[in-house]
Structure formats: structure tokens, C-alpha cells
From TrEMBL:
An example Gene Ontology CC term for this record: cytoplasm
Keywords associated with the record: ATP-binding, Cell cycle, Cell division, Cell shape, Cell wall biogenesis/degradation, Cytoplasm, Ligase, Nucleotide-binding, Peptidoglycan synthesis
Chain's gene name: murD
Residues in Mur ligase central domain copies: 126-304
Compartment annotation: Cytoplasm
Reaction catalyzed: UDP-N-acetyl-alpha-D-muramoyl-L-alanine + D-glutamate + ATP = UDP-N-acetyl-alpha-D-muramoyl-L-alanyl-D-glutamate + ADP + phosphate + H(+)
Descriptive protein name: UDP-N-acetylmuramoylalanine--D-glutamate ligase
Gene Ontology biological process terms, A to Z: cell division; cell wall organization; peptidoglycan biosynthetic process; regulation of cell shape
Transmembrane segments: none
Family: Belongs to the MurCDEF family.
Record-level Gene Ontology MF annotations: ATP binding; UDP-N-acetylmuramoylalanine-D-glutamate ligase activity
InterPro entries, per the entry: Mur-like_cat_sf, Mur_ligase_C, Mur_ligase_C_dom_sf, Mur_ligase_cen, MurD
Domain Mur ligase C-terminal: 327-440
Length: 463
């Protein structure tokens, strides 16, 4: 590494042959490094720049592939001469380097937009404020079990670009965040799924819910009458957002509040799906994923499966044996009759609401972390009904105390996963559930939500 410039180089820009197109990539995480490999494969001159430190894993990959990169800085001379820039979803538009690129008229796109140019696979794309990881992995599970040649990517798993470079899938199931959708322009979802719209990440959208909603509806852009748009008819913000849009694709809604067709609805205890490609019925008691929110998730995945004309017995088997992702309502252990559930992926209030809604026992709730301007009011009714004590896990717990001091007798502060697990265990009784569902980001005490969940699981196993 050149200590003066902090740029790893095996080839100087001046030695490039004429005609080679310069592509700059901002952010050297999973998506950026995957995009770099695909760009290299397609003959671009690639330069990767990360304003922070690059992890050893990704640094080694870039070195192995002979791709020039820098870390802990953005060298403008290296970036502003690019024909196009691929940026990490985590970099906001207000970042100085992005502003300068846009001033110069240099296109800034997402990894998904870039990789989509190089595959003709069918795209099943899933977004929403809550439930998208569960629905994406369930949909992938159903398609894979049915024998389809399918990849899983987007906000989950290995980067889409790297898979396009190294695999030959016929279908992809992509989990798309609003940040990814913001930098997608020509990409098209053959099947687009919008689960719900609730306030999240509003700091990136001028604190306007309508701006965030508009980002989510980019899932429908470029769709034609041959494509499918699946959405929740019970979600007020989704219905509101659709009123001003000219959606060209075939619409298949899902609901638990009324009967409708085509689409999916709840008839007594049965999910009923009717599409132009076939019908499907399954008892909600047979679903691997329980809870009201998971009926919605299962409906969305089931509609995708029927649109792709998968066999009913295969869909039913997959929906019945699916194992949920790590850190999302993950059962950890039962100790002295007390169940411990790891829902560390619940980084907003809505996710915690869904977790509490699915609980059937008294709960000791572990809450807290980096508060993103949370409105805890929506949790109040469920907390009154189900929560006997709150264990705060975070550096600053004042807003949690203020929100729930009139509703819960016991609110305790803790500053480590081990301390939180121990105190929750002592507050719980046989038959109760200790639920880690923080409603907050994790960066005050942990590296990320995975680290928080793993430390909690380790602490539970040591009880």
C-alpha cells in the first residue's frame, strides 16, 4: 500500500490503453466488491474507493483480482474522471463526492442496476419497510425446492453482481432496500412485491414519508403489462401511494381483511390464492411462520409461486418446513421453562410491533440502542397487554423510560448483552418469553445487529 496516497496500484491510469471505459465504485463492501469483479470481467477500467477502512476479506479479493482501490478517503481525481459510478446503498446523496459527481453530470447507479444489464434471468424483486428479508428467503426457499435454478441476492447473501459474473441462474430473488431502488433507473422487476410502507430511514428522505414511499414504488418502474405487481391491500400508505401512479403491470393484491380475487385473502383459517396461472389453498396452522405479519409474508411468497406456475404440493411443503433467517424471531433456547427469542434484526418500532404481536405468552422485552427518532406510542397497547418488564440495552435509555414508565412496573438499564440476558432471566417466570427485539440500531454497543444477536445468544447459552 502506498502510504502517501493510500491507493493500492499495480497499474497507473496514464498507462491505460485508449478506449477503455473508466468505472468508479464507491464503497468496498459486499455490493461494491462484487460490482468491481463484474466490471473487470466486462472489460472496464475499475477503481474502487472507500471513505472508511476496507475489511481484510474484501481487500484480499481486490488485490487478488488486481483491481486498484483506496481506503479512508475519496481521491477526486480518480473518481471524477469516471464515465459512470456505482455507489454503495449506504452512501447518502448529500455526501460531498456524490454532489460533485451529480454537478458534473456523471451517472451514479446501484450495483443492482449495473449487474442487471448482464443477465437475462427473471427478476423477482421484494421490498417493504418490514418483512422483506423473511419474504425474500421464503420465496427463494419455495423456488429452490421446486427445482428452479435460482439465485438469492440484493440486501442479502452474496452480491448480485458477483453472482451474475460467476453463475448462470434462470431466476433471481432480490431483496431491495429503498436505498438500492433510489439508484435504479432502467432495471425492471418481472415480478415486483411491495409488502408495506411504514416510517423508516426518514433522515435520508427529508423526513417526509411521501418521499420514502416514492422510493419504494420504484419497484414498479419500467414494468409492462406482461409483468406482475404484488402488494398489500391492507396497507394504508401503499394504497395512498398507488393513487397517483400509472402502474402498467398486472396487479395482484393480498389481504386478511376481505375476500378479493385475483390475489390472496384469508378465508377462515385458510390462505386462498387465485391468479391467472392457478389457485392455491393452505391452512395458516400449517405454516412454518406464525403470527399475523407472517400470514402477509406467506401470501406474498405464495402469489409469486403461483405466478411461476409451481405445483401446489411443492409450495405447501416449502411453506410448512421453512426455517426463518438468523436474528429474526429466532428461537434460541428454553431454560427453566422460559423461552428466549432473538429478534435483533428488529431495528425499528414496526418490526418490534410485529414481534410482540406474534407472542402468545407474557414477555420480558429487551429494547434499546441507537434511537432513530422512534415513536414508541404504537407499541403501547401491545406492551400493556403482553410485557411484564422491559430491559433496556443501550447507552441512552431515557426515551424508553419516558414512553413506558406508566405501562410497565419494571424498567431496568443494562449495558451488555450478557447483563441484559441475566437480568431478563431473573425477571421472567416459567412459561414467559424473553424477547430481544430492540426497535433501535445497534451501533452504540455492537458492530451491527448480527453482533448484537450473536452476543445475546452466547449470553443465553451461558445462563
Amino acid at each position: 500500500m502506498n502510504e502517501n496516497t493510500n491507493i493500492s496500484s499495480t497499474q497507473s491510469p496514464s498507462s491505460l490503453e485508449g478506449g477503455v471505459v473508466r468505472l468508479a465504485i464507491l464503497g468496498a463492501g459486499e455490493s461494491g466488491v462484487g460490482a468491481a469483479y463484474l466490471a473487470l470481467q466486462k472489460g472496464y477500467d475499475v477503481f474502487v474507493s472507500d471513505f472508511g477502512a476496507i475489511t481484510d476479506k474484501y481487500k484480499q479479493q481486490l488485490q487478488q483480482w488486481d483491481i486498484r482501490f483506496e481506503e479512508n478517503q475519496h481521491t477526486e481525481a480518480e473518481i471524477l474522471n469516471a464515465v459512470e459510478v456505482i455507489k454503495s446503498p449506504g452512501i447518502p446523496d448529500k455526501a460531498p463526492i456524490i454532489k460533485k459527481l451529480k454537478e458534473k453530470g456523471i451517472p451514479v447507479i446501484s450495483e443492482i442496476e449495473f449487474a442487471g444489464r448482464y443477465t437475462d434471468a427473471k427478476m423477482i424483486c421484494i421490498t417493504g419497510s418490514n418483512g422483506k428479508t423473511t419474504t425474500t428467503t421464503l420465496t427463494y426457499h419455495i423456488l429452490k425446492n421446486a427445482g428452479l435454478n435460482v439465485g438469492l441476492a440484493g440486501n442479502i447473501g452474496n452480491s448480485f453482481a458477483y453472482q451474475v459474473a460467476t453463475e448462470k441462474f434462470d431466476h433471481y430473488v432480490l431483496e431491495l432496500s429503498s436505498f438500492m431502488l433510489d439508484d435504479m433507473y432502467k432495471f425492471k422487476a418481472d415480478v415486483g412485491v411491495l409488502l408495506n410502507i411504514t416510517p423508516d430511514h426518514l433522515d435520508r428522505y427529508d423526513y417526509k414519508l411521501e418521499n420514502y414511499a416514492a422510493s419504494k414504488f420504484r419497484i414498479t418502474q419500467n414494468q409492462t403489462a406482461q409483468d406482475i405487481f404484488i402488494y398489500c391491500a391492507d396497507d394504508a400508505e401503499t394504497i395512498k401511494g398507488m393513487q397517483g401512479l400509472d402502474i402498467q403491470s398486472q396487479q395482484l393484491p393480498f389481504t386478511i381483511e376481505k375476500k378479493l380475487t385475483p390475489g390472496a385473502y384469508l378465508d377462515s383459517d385458510n390462505i386462498v390464492i387465485n391468479t391467472h396461472k392457478g389457485n392455491f389453498t393452505m391452512s395458516i396452522k400449517e405454516l412454518a411462520l406464525q403470527g399475523k405479519h407472517n400470514i402477509y409474508n406467506s401470501m406474498a411468497s405464495g402469489i409469486v409461486a403461483k405466478v411461476l406456475e409451481l405445483r401446489n404440493d411443492s409450495i405447501r411443503e416449502s411453506m410448512g418446513n421453512f426455517k426463518n433467517i438468523e436474528h429474526r424471531l429466532e428461537f434460541v433456547a428454553k431454560i427453566s421453562g422460559i423461552s428466549f427469542i432473538n429478534d435483533s434484526k428488529a431495528t425499528n418500532v414496526n418490526s418490534t410491533w410485529y414481534a410482540l404481536e406474534s407472542m402468545t405468552t407474557d414477555v420480558v422485552l429487551i429494547l434499546g440502542g441507537v434511537d432513530k427518532g422512534n415513536d414508541y406510542g404504537m407499541l403501547r397497547d401491545l406492551v400493556k397487554q403482553k410485557v411484564k418488564a422491559i430491559v433496556c440495552l443501550g447507552k441512552d435509555n431515557k426515551r424508553i423510560h419516558d414512553a413506558f414508565e406508566d405501562d410497565v412496573d419494571v424498567i431496568v438499564n443494562t449495558f451488555s448483552a450478557q447483563e441484559a440476558a441475566q437480568i431478563a432471566f431473573h425477571l421472567a417466570e416459567k412459561g414467559d418469553t424473553v424477547l430481544l427485539s430492540p426497535a433501535c440500531a445497534s451501533f452504540d454497543l455492537f458492530k451491527n445487529y448480527e453482533d448484537r444477536g450473536n452476543q445475546f445468544k452466547e449470553a443465553v447459552r451461558e445462563l
